Amino acid sequence: MGNTAKNRSITQTWFAIALWKRILTAMVVGALLGSLWGPGAEALGWIGDLFIRLIRMIVVPLVFVTIVSGVVSMGDPSKLGSLGVKTLILYMLTTLGAITIGLILAVFLQPGVGVDLTGAPASTLQETVPLSERLISIVPENPIAALAEGNILAIIFFAILIGVGLLSVGESGKPVADFMDASSEVVLRITHWIMEIAPFGVLALIARVTGAQGFDALLNAVVLAITVLIACAAHLVLTHGVLIMQLMLKLSPINFFRGAREAMLVAFSTSSSAATLPVSMSAAEDNLGVKPVVASTVLPLGATINMDGTALYVGIVSVFAAQAFGIDLTLTDYLIMAGTTTLVSVGTAAVPSASLFLMAAVMETIGMTAQQIAVTVGFIFIIDRPLDMLRTSINIAGDLAVSTAVATWEGEFDREVFDRPLNS
Q1: Is there a contact between 316 and 105 (Cβ–Cβ < 8 Å)?
Q2: What is the pTM of this model?
Q3: What domains sit in the chain, N to C, each tagged with a CATH number?
């Protein structure tokens, strides 16, 4: 009887701690464990893989049913057009802002000056997916196959069509609409359950990365790593905190970052915007006051096309490579790089280290050869994972900032939820 009471007390104490604190503690413990254990930390990898599988399991049903339910709850299909236009414009503008910050800091800090890439191993590059092909793939040949393959853009398109179709048939579509609404609640409940095991998954993921690469990997390109770190922090504070939250929306940046912290921590540990999507949707609705009608449409789209951190990173690495190889860049080169990076980031897969294979399109615009590009990617590969973790957190912050802005403009924002104090 005493042991049962004690176990209950431990469980209650555990769940009484704010989730973000549990996740942050797990990250610290994982980093220390990985450093001490070294490659042996790979033994914990299966726990992290299980956590990733659980949240990937819920992504497709979550996106599909919440978008259908969200479109139906609008009551007016024309509202979807207004929401979509504002979302796309804001996503593109924040991405352009990110690449601009990255280019400016890369020019100022000059991470590539004095770097010798001659001894770096060349890396085989995957061909960039043309933007036209990316756009065509939005319309699925087989919706069931799109659901099975997890093609998020195709799923979004099909779900929107289903939602608009349900609106157009009116009362006869109500049973299906009610089913989708109930399904949305069920899937969100499962998401909350999965989040309760996040600390264990995060600990295993961080331990494996630290054990395999250690902290020494960053020392091989310390100026580049510091440049990316400063650029990410500047974009986070200036673009999302000051410009969007404070100036555009008149909201507290502190409240925003407080509400977004759980999703950003999970993004840091998983390095995947797609895998973090269920957590982002939960954070948007529960912490930031974004109504489901906006969260269910803006966030899945953001996980696919909004890559602020990736755009920023690709720009910095391109300038780094140009400096290392002695390529002089003009203002026109920087403008072309900014435009190209903004478009390339739309085609970036929402999976770890995908940006490594999309840098070629940007580097080619400044006259770099295929061999130089391959050598650059080989050089940064050893430090890419920790930087990938960082920029994924920036991507998620961008998704949440844009969803908050669109929700405010569309009248789908709960200010009381945004301002209420969370568990500290």
Answers
A1: yes
A2: 0.77
A3: 44-419 (1.10.3860.10)
